[in-house]
């Protein structure tokens, strides 16, 4: 099962979190998750993917 969220590097060298199914930047609580340092983006994408698996009832996958 593919992960729902991924990170993409911007031309400026920062990172955006994107929904890999739509290709669009993720917006969380009205805040677009864009222009982040790699460490922050990596941490957040892990949390978002974990939450997505839990919401789909796929904890063991």
**Global structural class:** alpha+beta
> Total helix count?
1
For the largest beta-sheet, the strand count, sense and barrel status come to:
2 strands, antiparallel
- What order do the helices and strands follow? EEEEH
Number of domains: 1
Regions with pLDDT < 50 over 5+ consecutive residues?
none
Write the layout of secondary structure elements.
Blueprint: E1 5-9, E2 15-19, E3 27-28, E4 31-32, H1 38-55
Antiparallel strand pairs: 1-2, 3-4
Give the gist of this structure.
By secondary structure, the chain is an alpha+beta fold.
Folded structure, characterized:
This protein is an alpha+beta fold and 61 residues long. The protein has one domain (5-55). It is built from one helix and four strands; from the N terminus they run ββββα. It has one helix spanning 38-55; strands spanning 5-9, 15-19, 27-28, 31-32. Strands 1-2 form a two-stranded antiparallel sheet. It has a two-stranded antiparallel ribbon with strand order 3-4. Strand 3 (27-28) and strand 4 (31-32) form a beta hairpin. It starts with a strand and ends in a 6-residue tail after the last helix. The model has no long low-confidence stretch (mean pLDDT 93).
């Amino acid at each position: 099962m593919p992960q729902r969220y991924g990170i993409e590097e911007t031309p400026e060298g920062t990172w955006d979190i994107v929904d890999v199914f739509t290709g669009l930047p993720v917006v969380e609580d009205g805040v677009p998750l864009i222009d982040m340092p790699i460490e922050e983006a990596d941490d957040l994408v892990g949390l978002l993917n974990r939450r997505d698996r839990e919401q789909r009832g796929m904890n063991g996958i």
